[in-house]
Amino acid sequence: MRKWFGRGLRLGLAPDGLALVRTGFWPHEQAQLLAQARFKENNIDAVLREAGRMLADQEGSGWALRVVLSDELVRLWQVAPPPGATRMADFEAACALRYQALFGASPAGWQIRADWSATRPFLAAAVPQTLLAQLQAAASGSGFRLIEVQPQFVAALNQHRAMRRPGAWFGLVHGGVLSVAAFDGDKLAAVRTAPIPEGADRDWLEGHVAREALRVGLGRPERLQVSGPAPKGWASSAGRLKFACTLFEDELDPLWPDSARLAMTGRAP
Question: What top-level branch of life does the organism fall under (predicted)?
Answer without folding.
Answer: Bacteria
